[in-house]
Amino acid sequence: MSSIQKSEADVVLVGTGIMSATLGVLLKELKPNLKIEVIERLDSPAAESSDAMNNAGTGHSAFCELNYTPEKADGSIDATKAINIVEQFEVSRQFWTYLLKKNVLKNPKTFIHSVPHMSFVWGKDNVSFLKKRFEELQKYPLFHGMEYSDNPEKIKEWAPLLMENRDANEECAATHMPYGTDMNFGDLTRQMFSHLGETDGVNITFNNQVTNLTRVGKKWNVASTDRKSGAKREISADFVFVGAGGGAILLLQKADIPESKGFGGFPVGGEWLVCRNQEIVQKHLAKVYGKASVGAPPMSVPHLDTRYIDGKQCLLFGPYAGFSTKFLKQGSYFDLIKSLEFNNIGPMLGAGLRNLDLTKYLIEQVLQSNKSRHKALRAYYPDAKEEDWTLEHAGQRVQVIKKDPSGKGILQFGTEVVASGDGSIAALLGASPGASTATSIMLKLLAKCFKDEFESDQWQAKFKEMIPSFGLSLNEHPELVSEVREKSSEALKIYPHNN
């Protein structure tokens, strides 16, 4: 019988996505002497949700995402979520700026580009909604610089492909925000882990599958198996973070903490239409978001995007949603079945009954033909030709299902940190806009799991050094908005595009 390699660590990070990378770098900045073990089931970092092709690559800032500004029953626009998201993205930008100055990040040109964010709609009701949305957002300094137009020539100036050979009688409108960005979260994550891998006290192990999480006194025993050799390891740790994307819920269940009871997950896959024909690609510099179909999850809001992947500019349209029982792109078809437990079957069934329109939508998406996919594309780009586009797989997302106060199940979009009462273990569940808001999410995790240190003068001073707006609402400090944007734009080498 082969022996088990045993070791100890202060912190174990499970998964090498943007969340683990962000937390690992934050902890090393705050406590340089920490011993951190990183465990990844694949052979390289950022190969799942954080990989460029597996997410939208939008620097989610609510400039163009219409689902972040719902219309209330009285017809007014609720901008609460939009303000919250743009503030969180600004926090991420400030943190990346700090990391560039510290030489943690080496080259911003590989992970962030300036790409205007646009919303584009057609039809009288949608045009009315977009105008009301624009007028509401103009009240807040974080959205200053945004323009609105229902003039076809102006929209064509912003994004020519949208208007070429469009029906002249079709009423349409758009907003244009020059401060938008395209993100390659895969490269950003790899740069962070490259730094961590060269840092004293950090050990990163690839091709290792975590098989169990067991509480032993005040510590956690993290058991893992090498996927190639079969060698087994056990790490005793004070704190464990499960940042394993869609696979986080399965590992959280192994930990068996009371706080995880009732949580389930609903997997949603995705596909993109991709254009690499540079004659077309060079005519479009924007991320153009529209309105979601009835029943569609927020991650399936259609958009026509400029992307920079592997150093090359291309266009993506989608995503087209699909259903798979896998929780990870490189996961198992048994993931969904494995996640079923007595305590979450009720909430999952309840959420399913409450979201029959989502089920109907996913069935339609799975059954759609290539012809219908291109029909959806031509609603945004009327002149699109099938031969210029290829269908490619995007990543898997697992939407959170949990009990509501009444005990019934609800499908929750967004992200959620689930932590034990003593803060010794935490996991991130959910999806968009997670990557863009990773810094804020990890700061909340630190406040929950490292409470005393988080509130200490030493940590508070370090947070202010890393994130100048820390503790303040940017929306309530207009002068600070300009200051932090100017500094981060200069450091990240992203300058607003004005037509």
Summary tags:
single chain, 499 residues, alpha+beta, FAD/NAD(P)-binding domain, ten-stranded mixed β-sheet, eight-stranded mixed β-sheet, 33% helix
Low-pLDDT segments, ≥5 res: none
- Secondary structure class reads alpha+beta
CATH superfamily, called what? Answer: FAD/NAD(P)-binding domain
Q: Residue-averaged pLDDT, rounded?
A: 89
Number of helices: 16
- Could you describe the largest sheet, including whether it forms a barrel? 10 strands, mixed
Question: What's the short version?
Answer:
The chain is α+β, with helices and mostly antiparallel strands and 499 residues long.
Explain what the structure shows.
This protein has 499 residues and is of the alpha+beta class. It has a single domain, classed as FAD/NAD(P)-binding domain, CATH 3.50.50. It is built from 16 helices and 20 strands. Strands 4, 5, 6, 12, 13, 14, 15, 16, 17 and 18 form a ten-stranded mixed β-sheet that branches. Strands 1, 2, 8, 9, 10, 11, 19 and 20 form an eight-stranded mixed β-sheet that branches. Strand 14 and strand 15 (312-322) form a beta hairpin. Helix 1 crosses helix 13 and helix 2 crosses helix 16. The longest helix has 22 residues, at 80-101. The radius of gyration is 23 Å and the shape is globular. It starts with a strand and ends in a 7-residue tail after the last helix. The model has no long low-confidence stretch (mean pLDDT 89).
SSE layout:
Elements (H helix, E strand, L loop, with lengths): L3 E11 L3 H13 L5 E4 L40 H22 L10 E3 L2 E6 L1 H14 L9 E3 L2 H7 L1 H4 L8 E6 L3 E3 L1 H13 L4 E4 L2 E9 L2 E8 L5 E11 L5 H8 L8 E12 L2 H4 L5 E3 L13 E7 L2 E11 L12 H4 L3 H13 L1 H12 L2 H9 L11 E4 L3 E7 L5 E4 L2 E5 L5 E6 L7 H12 L1 H4 L2 H10 L11 H15 L7
